[in-house]
Amino acid sequence: MRAGCLFNEIDLATDTEMVHSDYVDGVESVKGEHKVSDYSSITSKDMAAGRTVVNRDSRTDERTATLYETIYGPAGERAYVAVPMMRAGQWVASLFLSTDEPRNWSADDVRLLEGIAERAWLATEKLRAAEALQRSRDELEMRVSERTAQLMTTLDQLKVENEQRLRAETERTNLLDQLVGIQEEERRRIARDLHDELGQQVTALRLNLGNAREIAKGGPITELLDATQKIAENLDADIGFLAWELRPATLDHSGLGPTLSAYIREWSRFSSVKADFLVQSFGTTRLEKRVELNLYRIVQEALNNVSKYAQASTVNVLLEKTEKHISLIIEDDGLGFDAQAQLASVDGLGLIGMRERAAIIGGSLIIESAPGRGTTVFVRVPFDPLIRVEESKNGSA
Questions:
Q1: CB 93 within 8 A of CB 8
Q2: N or C end: fewer C-beta atoms under 10 angstroms in the chain?
Q3: 144-193 residue pLDDT tens
Q4: DSSP 3-state of 288
């Protein structure tokens, strides 16, 4: 007796049978693709319904007798068992075992073949799942490699661009620092000229007016001389305040705290706006001169804006040192404004200058304001290690 076996996969939607493996001694292999409809329609219907087909003699079985001479006989399939594999109600594969002689297949034979068929299909599914998973992993690794390469290229480009921006920003900050230095030298020169030349002339004018008043001794022009003397005194005070605004001498030897305290007090007197100044945690600490100077100028510009535009009744200034930062806050209860729009306009050059001064010393400046809600300027500068700290010998700040 000669036996044969084949395992196939079924796709009823396309009427396709794919024979993956077969063995029939002395008969040509039928591996490959065939049409399901080439076989007995009765057998196909049974298997499509999930029923195992048991044929004990294909020559005499009424379902296959008409096809014995053309299909079953030449293939040596005198008796066979066809076991369908079902998934989700669909016939997807089958195991076919045949002999070239009639055979009385027992129930145990059929159960054994059904078990072998199920295990064979499970092994096939597991193998395909493993292959699909491996393909997915390979594709994922390939995509990850490609994406990583793209990201590395982008990262390199961003790194170069960032370095270029940093260099440009550093150059810009250095230029601003040099410009501020030039401006401060010019302020110092103008302040000196105001004090030494114009101030002296006004002082001489006041002395001459005093002498003229003595000569007049209560004459008709005495009242005019008194009024002129008052004007000269105011002019002398304004020149002194202007010279001090241009370059406060106390900043060099007394430090930021005392200089701001004196300036805010004088500014309040000249502007008639109530101003409070609070300095916290400075003790005798001195900052680097350029840091003190730029913070002083930021306060000066902020108060100048208050006197020009804010119509405020009160201003509060806070200078505070923490372990890592110097904080400066200028807050008023004035009219407020649209800070973003102002910064974007030509009229916002003063605000931009304040921000640039903060950037020069490695700090940041934020302006919070809205119409009718006043204005607050926040400045934060790193205290260590970017700022050199000195201990003042000129008293507490």
A1: yes
A2: N
A3: 999 888 988 888 888 888 888 888 777 777 777 777 677 766 766 776 66
A4: coil
Query: 280 is written with which tokens?
Result: 């916290």
| Residues 23/4, Cβ–Cβ less than 8 Å | yes
Residues 6+ apart with CB under 8 A from 240: 195, 199
Tell me whether residue 132 is exposed, middle or buried, using C-beta atoms within 10 angstroms of its C-beta: 0 to 12, 13 to 18, 19 or more: exposed
DSSP three-state, residue 49 = coil
Q: How far apart are CA 46 and CA 51, in angstroms?
A: 5
Backbone dihedral angles phi then psi of residue 363, each to the nearest 5 degrees: -110, -170
Distance CA 335, CA 374 (A): 5
Question: Do 91 and 72 form a contact (C-beta atoms < 8 A)?
Answer: no
Where b means 16+ CB within 10 Å and e means fewer, 183-222 reads: ebeeeeeebeebbeeebeebeebbeebeeebeeeeeeeee
Counting beta carbons within 10 angstroms of the beta carbon of residue 59, is it exposed (0 to 12), middle (13 to 18) or buried (19 or more)? middle
Residue 326 pLDDT greater than 80, yes or no:
yes
253-397: CATH topology: Heat Shock Protein 90 (3.30.565)
Provide Rg for the chain, Cα atoms: 50
87-98 average pLDDT score: 89
Q: Give the 3-state secondary structure of residue 124.
A: helix
pLDDT score, position 40: 58
First to last CA, the chain: 114
Which of 23-32, 43-52, 95-104: highest mean pLDDT?
95-104
Pick the CATH number of 3-105 from 3.30.565.10, 3.30.450.40, 3.40.190.10, 3.40.50.10700: 3.30.450.40
